[in-house]
Amino acid sequence: MTSNFHSRLSKDLSSILKDADDYNVIIKVGKYQNTKEFRAHSVILRARSPYFKNDDWITKENNLITFNKPNIIPTVFDMVLKYIYTGELDLAKQSGEDILGLLIASHELLIEELFEHVQDHLIEKQTKWVEKNIVFVLNSVFKLEGCEKLRDYCLESICNDLKSFITSNAFTLLDKDVLFNLFKREDFQIEEIIAWDSLIKWGIKQIPELENKDDQKEWTDENYEELKNTLNEFIPLINFLDITSEDFYHKIQPYKTIIPNDIFDEIMTYYLVEQPKTYSFIQIESKIIKPKLANIISNWIDKKNPKLIRTEKKDPLYKFNLIYRGSRDGIDNDSFKNNCKGHYSSLVLIKVQQSNKIFGGYSSIGLKSIGDDFLIDSLGFQWYNSSDNFIFSFEDDQDMRNMKISRVLNNSKAILEYNTTGFNFGWDSLYMEGKNLCIYNWRGDYENNLQVGATYTIEEIETFIVTINQ
Q1: What is the pLDDT of residues 71-102, one digit of tens each?
Q2: What percent of the chain stands above pLDDT 70?
Q3: How many whole angstroms separate alpha carbon 220 and alpha carbon 296?
Q4: How far is CA 182 from the centre of its chain?
Q5: Which residues form the BTB domain (predicted)?
Q6: Mean of pLDDT values over 306-321
């Protein structure tokens, strides 16, 4: 049996580092007024990192190896050396900026174990600092190989509250490569006109001469050409056909010269020829959503593109007949069940307190299910079957960009009949319990696209019977 004495070994190596009277390496770190010299032993450095096995870093002076690293500050390098000699690291009292510096230094010095640990620490223990300094973090680590976890964490955090970020001043400080990656993400869901406005603002920020010209009338042809070159990779990422003609006239037309001719011609063809002339947004008697969101929901019911705008001569539209409203009928389980029982094809909408968010669900078999097609499981719970059900969320009553939908996965457990809830999609995927709306999805009966593990207080709730308008 092998005995381990790591604790004593670590202590002895620590004393060697502190009292390095037989050192053969001098490492100078930092710059300007923030510099420091460290003494070390080449044999230990080489044993702990492949970086030091390459002689390119070596400069000999008075029989000593000297090593200059002006891009690493003393505080960070002190942590690096302590880790190299003792395998110990205490980040509890370190600033977020120094921990990020340690991540970058460990990447450069090829200390893989330290690099992975620090990356995880930033994500798990420095969440608030990272989110507060998210642009600084992204710009610092975006091109670091192996830093995908931290990079994706930052980009996902941005996309979770995209509108606030993209309209902030911090947005204009993003590096070009970071911005391009952000625009290409599938979860980059924002109104196209907002994306365009923010892109123009970012482009102007990159050109100092334009920053000083508040009036676009002062711009020269050279200014437009420079902005065009700055944004040429981004223009094809904007879906101009999702921008209203009014916004196009006021916000796109003034920048015509920076848009490639083929793209601009396509836009003009759409607005002048191809754009549907008659819109038939579904009417809905709702205090929670606007009619255009009912159009999205109807497309979800038909399993079609949610943004498809239907004209009067196309597919049959749905009618939404209000049968229950919480502010009128009472927000509690009994009121919900009494008003919603005995109906198929039902839509429920919920506005929650202290938020603009809207949640909802559609059930082709009703919310207070009826009929004989049910299953009683081993626990005595009664389940109803449907392959058409889904739950969803909107960021506000007009959201057409950040909407999320989760379709039923376990058809046999689409709706749960339960005595302590008003309605229950799946095993607590989305359910009403008195005045509370809960989203947990314990068993994965529905896709996991909504924010789970959340409980909200219901501000308003409505139920509609959905019928086809022939």
Answers
A1: 999 999 999 999 999 888 999 999 999 999 99
A2: 90
A3: 43
A4: 10
A5: 23-93
A6: 62
Half-sphere exposure of 462 (CA within 13 A, CB side): 15
Residue type at position 159: C
- pTM: predicted TM-score of the whole model, two decimal places: 0.60
For residue 53, how far is the Cα from the chain centroid? 41
Among the CATH numbers 3.40.50.300, 3.40.50.620, 3.30.710.10, 3.30.2110.10, which is that of 6-131? 3.30.710.10
Does residue 113 register a pLDDT over 90?
Answer: yes
Q: Which letter does DSSP use for residue 370 in this model?
A: -
E strand or H helix that includes residue 39: strand 34-40
- Chain centroid, CA 432 distance in Å: 27
| Average confidence (pLDDT) over 123-128 | 95
163, two tokens: 């509108």
d(CA 87, CA 90): 10
Q: Where are the domains of the chain?
A: 6-131, 191-274, 291-469
What SS3 state is found at 141?
helix
The torsion angles phi and psi of 461, rounded to 5 degrees, stand at: -145, 140
SS3 31: strand
Distance separating alpha carbons of residues 469 and 212, to the nearest angstrom = 57
Q: Mapping DSSP to helix (H, G, I), strand (E, B) and coil, where does residue 231 land?
A: helix
For 41-196, list the strands marked E by DSSP. Answer: 59-61, 64-69
Pairwise CA distance, residues 86 & 48, whole Å: 11
- The alpha helices in 276-318, defined as continuous H runs, are 291-301
Task: Report whether 45 contacts 58 (CB < 8 A).
Answer: no
Cβ–Cβ < 8 Å for 462, 358: no
DSSP string of 53-82? GSGGG-EEETTEEEEEETTS-HHHHHHHHH
Bridge-based pairing of strands 25-31 and 64-69 is parallel
What is the amino acid identity at position 115?
A: F
**Lookup result for tokens 């509690």:** 332
Are residues 137 and 150 in contact, defined by beta-carbon separation less than 8 angstroms? Answer: yes
Q: How much of the chain, in percent, has pLDDT values that exceed 90?
A: 59
Cβ proximity of 312 and 279 under 8 Å: no
Are 451 and 393 within 8 A, CB to CB? yes
- Alpha-carbon span 113 to 107, nearest angstrom: 10
Q: What is the DSSP letter of 368?
A: B
* Cβ contact 293:400 at 8 Å: yes
Q: Which residue has the higher pLDDT, 194 or 61?
A: 194
